Amino acid sequence: MLSWQRIRSVYEPTAERHARTAQLVGLRCPLPVFAALFHDRGEDPALGRLLGDVDLLPLEWALELRSGQELRDVLVDRDFQPAVDAAHRELLQVPTLHRRDEVAESWLEYGSWKEPPIFLSGEVLGSSTADVLLVGSTRLGQLEALLDRGLLPPTTAHQVWVGRPQSARAPAARAMNPRYS
Checking DSSP bridges between strand 131-135 and strand 59-67, what pairing results, if any? Predict the structure, then answer.
């Protein structure tokens, strides 16, 4: 079993070096996922609780597409829900697309987030829910607000990283960017 604690135990000061040492113990994970999930949030107790009993060795990470409507059905852990709610509430209260220009520009340019959030397939945690949010609470809350404001249609597709057991790859899943493969 390759655990969250084991990945934490091989910590290195840079995400790239940390990812290389994690690869030596068996983790297969694209650098953007590794940096956001294991390196930047390696000390997050909520993630440690969620992933503490998960065997990370058989997981495969891929960019997949989800509609805005599908993303409303993502399971959000109680520790992450306040951040989702705050981002949603904040974006509903501003008259512009977003108070930060770089975020607004990203939504205008891409019609989506610039960096895909990270999910774990619900089956990994024994949930019947399709996906469980790991990283990207603010992005998810912003998307829900943009959908509520009618600025994005619910059918708009958004890239998300999803980790799932290798044998359980979603039939419609496909890598969206070869540089992350």
Answer: unpaired
Run of H or E including 112 = none
Question: In what helix (H) or strand (E) does residue 3 lie, and over which residues does it extend?
Answer: none
For residue 65, list its beta bridge partners.
159
Q: What distance in Å separates the CA atoms of residue 128 and residue 13, rounded to the nearest whole number?
A: 37
Question: Where in the chain are the domains?
Answer: 4-57, 64-167
Check if the beta carbon of residue 63 is closer than 8 Å to that of residue 161. yes
Name beta bridge partners: 120. 132, 163
Asked if residues 137 and 80 have their Cβ atoms less than 8 Å apart, the reply is yes
pTM check: above 0.85: yes
Q: In what order do the strands lie in the sheet with 59-67?
A: 59-67, 157-165, 118-121, 131-135
In contact, 61 and 170? CB cutoff 8 Å:
no
CA pair distance 66, 156, nearest whole angstrom: 8
Q: Is 101 exposed, middle or buried (0-12, 13-18, 19+ CB in 10 A)?
A: exposed
Report how far residue 20's alpha carbon sits from residue 145's, in angstroms, rounded to the nearest whole number.
38
In DSSP terms, 157 is beta-bridged to 67
Q: Are 121 and 163 in contact (CB under 8 A)?
A: yes
pLDDT in tens, 81-125: 999 999 999 888 876 666 677 777 777 788 888 899 999 999 998
